[in-house]
Design brief:
Blueprint (H helix, E strand, L loop, with lengths): L3 H12 L5 H16 L3 H6 L10 H9 L4 H5 L1 E4 L2 E4 L9 H13 L5 E5 L5 H9 L4 E6 L2 H13 L4 E5 L14 E6 L4 E2 L8 H4 L8 E2 L6 H13 E10 L5 H10 L2 E8 L5 E8 L2
Parallel strand pairs: 3-4, 3-6, 4-5, 6-9, 7-8
Antiparallel strand pairs: 1-2, 9-11, 10-11
């Protein structure tokens, strides 16, 4: 049986062609620590302890092929909670945690919130947990994503209503003037960027949750914005995660759709990433 150190070394070597050294080390440690049920401190104290990982061979093969470590582990962390993830749902990112934190901080107790394009349910579940007495609805077109999101909500004790709906088709399944805030991390990466993306994203995460046509990269913002004009209560807020290279264009689009108080915030990497605006009736 290999030691903890040997497992980390083996994974790092296997994925070295795919990642920069620091990221390869992080992936190798994350997998090993989680599969062994240990912390960094426990590893430092006993790196030569045996690592009993029954599926090690298959896991190394998958990681070496570029499969995201979050999919191999079948979960990831978001807003201090553990979410089930797998093929068919986008892996939650730290930038989206910033979006959720900003939206929750401005919401009042009992607020009615809508998450458009829920995926794993990370936004909806987090809003339900962060906003006291929140009434949260989450929509997605994918039955597979909705199944994962429902399991996450149940396991994390979050009350969320899930609805299958197409964000590009008007969201007519939802009632008028029903929400105080709408939060969305829609697809926004231009299709032409796909070739340059890392294999673990390009070849494994659901393309429908990532990419948009080059000739209409703001299609989801336009559609959700128009639906939000009907769905939001007066002075309700619309929150988006945005593509940093189209921040100004996204703000102009929403202004043209009748939204006011448009503000763009920078994320932890100093990129324009979060947009908030207010519905004007």
């Amino acid at each position: 049986m290999p030691t903890r150190r040997e497992v980390i070394d083996r994974i790092r070597r296997a994925i070295a062609p795919l990642y920069e050294p620091r990221e390869a080390e992080q992936i190798a440690r994350r997998f090993t620590f989680e599969r062994c049920g240990i912390t960094l401190t426990q590893y430092v104290v006993a790196p030569e302890a045996q690592a009993d990982i029954p599926d090690l061979e298959e896991s190394v093969r998958q990681l070496a092929a570029g499969r995201p470590v979050q999919y191999v582990l079948a979960h990831t962390e978001f807003c201090g909670m553990t979410f089930e993830v797998g093929e068919g749902v986008l892996i939650p990112r730290p930038e989206t945690e910033e979006l959720v934190a900003a939206a929750a901080a401005r919401a009042v107790a009992g607020a009615a919130a809508l998450d458009v394009g829920t995926g794993s349910g990370c936004i909806a579940v987090s809003l339900a947990r962060l906003i006291p007495d929140a009434r949260v609805t989450a929509v997605d077109l994918s039955p597979q994503a909705l199944a994962v999101a429902r399991r996450n909500a149940v396991r994390l004790g979050a009350e969320v209503r899930f609805v299958q709906a197409d964000a590009l088709a008007g969201l007519h399944e939802l009632p008028d003037a029903a929400f105080d805030l709408i939060v969305s991390n829609p697809p926004y990466v231009p299709q032409s960027d796909r070739a340059a993306m890392h294999v673990n994203v390009r070849d494994y995460e659901p393309p429908e949750a990532l990419f948009v046509p080059d000739d209409d990269p703001l299609r989801f913002y336009r559609a959700i914005g128009r639906a939000a004009r009907r769905l939001l209560r007066p002075d309700g807020r619309l929150w988006f995660e945005i593509y940093e290279q189209l921040a100004d264009e996204t703000a102009r689009l929403l202004a043209n759709e009748g939204f006011g108080d448009i503000a763009v915030r920078r994320d932890i990497n100093d990129k324009p990433r979060i947009l908030c605006c207010t519905a004007r009736k």
